[in-house]
């Protein structure tokens, strides 16, 4: 197709699409309902369980969950009955185990409650057995080689620490049972089990350190608040872009003249149509018990953000999946396409997921909060130092944790965190860390040492950080760290599990130093000293930093294959085995699955770009050339020259892609990934360059693919 009629029609649709609004929910008296009244209305949360379960059953459930034991059958049966009755009252007809396979998204298989009684009459039935376990066909999910050594079957098991909820369909509801996904011998096939294990490991080490610090704490939770960035464009455009449909990003498209050069979008007023989308998204999330809190425009045109209030890491991970799913579903109802990809548009800011992370005691004390007195300050410094040490020792694992084809377009580009993991502390803490490292305080008793350092002023940190460095992939922001390098479409589970594991290692090292006779301050000093190279407050986007980081010995993996190689190391294996987060085989499966995913994504992009070039771009250029055949006036002749040059470049780069693709090795996954990354990705980029040059010379009425300017700026 080489005319622009479909594109013009899409612009028409996009600019005339009516907004969508919902009747405001009301309370029992007909007044506008408050969010607090709507909150978690579709969640079978502990309070609701308490109301609906016999007291002794509820007590046994609480004990079992607290102790992390297996639920007994009679307790499960009673819970199954109660949740079924609640779900039926709410109009549910089905239930499903909902799990997180290693694809990074979610999976579910629905069954209805329908059964029959002894007389063959229809009834609704749900048992403890059905609640506890289900057996989807594991063979259709990635197992990363574990299938060759284990049986192909797998099962899902209810995770009782994450509450069940009702999912809304167009005409019905489904009871969703958050679950872990395991192979037949208990090996984890999902993103959830490693996260839960990492939280256990972190809790053990952190509470031990608390005890050594004289402030015992029984259970420590990793807290996470992931800020979700996304783009929306009108669905009419997306339906004309095969690349958005299959790859989630545009594989070609000339930069819009305006781009984000005026920087007028960030925190600007939210377009009405988008606000309508956000309101409906929040309304759904509230019902699901997701603490949606902040909404605003992001840096790029068409880019926005949703941030929840932080919560326990595993719940945050479930909720982030619900956020992504709700964003997609609701966007569709509003005539938008939701783009969660890390880099949907070249030359425009990409999207990340800032994973805010800290550790919290059972009484709600934040261990990365500097506190107000010297003993709290010391605890803060110990946890800070442990985090630094863990991040420094395992920077490679953290880099690998965020590696994906999509993130390759973002990391290291000039508006995204660099592909080098470093930690930003801010001026004030840097001074303190340097003071500790230089030994200024070594021989003073702890309380006095803190005062000597000016540490009694620690609460000033939050202020110090208000003007913080946006170029750091891992920044301290007052009372938490912000892991900014995570990709916008990725699950937060694995990055968080890796972070928990790394910090566990840092904590355990400090504990070992103290147990071997160091006082706490000496151990803190060792940790700050060893982790000095990972501390960097300068401009992470600069070329000098790349050189400096190399001098410091920090890993710099520029792309997914080299990043994933960092998982396949003795030190990574030792970390995951020691902390109990992943066995050797389980770790290898993550490595394999991620490589395979990378390879598939590159191959898909190659396919769709070739299709677009052969069936859209080249026909448009040919039509343009034909229209100029025989022209003699000066303008047309000049134009003819430009079109010919573009045509020549297209021909050459298109052939180069075929040559590159045909050389793809067929041996192991890493060889394929390395080859694709070094040969096919650059060939695709070159072809894209030729396409974008063509878009700039072909007459607008002959260009059929929606242009960047339209997708980003013309959305009604
Ligand atoms: P920003 O300026 O980056 O938007 P905010 O203070 O708004 O920073 O916080 C961003 C995110 O950090 C929110 O999701 C918030 O809930 C989360 N957050 C705040 N405190 C913690 C904590 N102790 N642990 C984990 N996440 C936290
Ligand atoms: Mg932030």
Description:
- The protein is α+β, with helices and mostly antiparallel strands.
- The chain folds into 4 domains: about 170 residues, Glutamine synthetase, N-terminal domain (Ubiquitin-like (UB roll)), CATH 3.10.20; about 240 residues, no CATH class; about 120 residues, Creatine Kinase, Chain A, domain 2 (2-Layer Sandwich), CATH 3.30.590.10; about 120 residues, Four Helix Bundle (Hemerythrin (Met), subunit A).
- The chain is built from 27 helices and 18 strands.
- The strands form 3 sheets. Strands 10, 11, 12, 13, 14, 15, 16, 17 and 18 form a 9-stranded mixed beta sheet that branches.
- The mean pLDDT is about 90.
Oligomerization category of the chains in this entry: single chain
Compute the average pLDDT.
Answer: 91
Give the structural class: alpha+beta
Say how many strands there are.
Answer: 18
Low-confidence stretches: none
Shape call:
globular
- Count structural domains: 4
How much helix is in the residues? 40-55%
Report, as a whole number of angstroms, the end-to-end distance: 26 Å
